[in-house]
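To whoever picks this up:

The nightly regression suite flagged L,D-TPase catalytic domain-containing protein as changed. Nothing in the input moved, so I suspect the structure step. Input below, exactly as stored in the fixture:
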Amino acid sequence: MLLRAVMHTLCVLMLAVAGSGVALAQVLAPGQFEWTPASQSSGPLLILVSIPEQQLHVYRNGVRIGVSTISSGKPGHETPTGVYEILEKRPMHRSNLYDNAPMPFMQRLTWDGVALHAGRIPGHPASHGCIRLPADFARQLFEMTERGTRVVIADEASHGPDVLHPGERAPVDSYSGLPAGASTALDSMASSTDSRLPAPPAR
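Regenerated output under the current build:
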């Protein structure tokens, strides 16, 4: 009877979330990941980090090809949210700030120390601000990205549920990092403004 009640509650919650348009988080144990790059082999790459989920999602041409558990910044060293791009890549780097700590497959997001890299994944935020990844996932992601790849880091204060709990389709634009609806609206506004501009004089 208890098991039936629990299962009923879970089904109700799943239906409620599905009806809201918000995806359920991938159920992965700390250190686990899923990686299916062959499912979408071309198009722009996008990395989306959900701080509340402690997960990183990888999209190619708007389709999810990977999801991994992470460990973000611990209290007092919170990972900053925002829209970034990969500035620098090194297969092995050592921290300039924290006891020469190794940072394998380092992909720098800011010049003051925030990066993606392989590290311990305890199941909760534990870093000094970087985003730690499982070692094998970090290696495969490193091999796929390039300088300029867009990275979006989100929490409850910066983004809505559709970005914090993303599904199979990317909820943000691969180039701008803006939520999909916002990017479309900006494009429409730009087109509308251009159409109202006077034609240049004939020469």
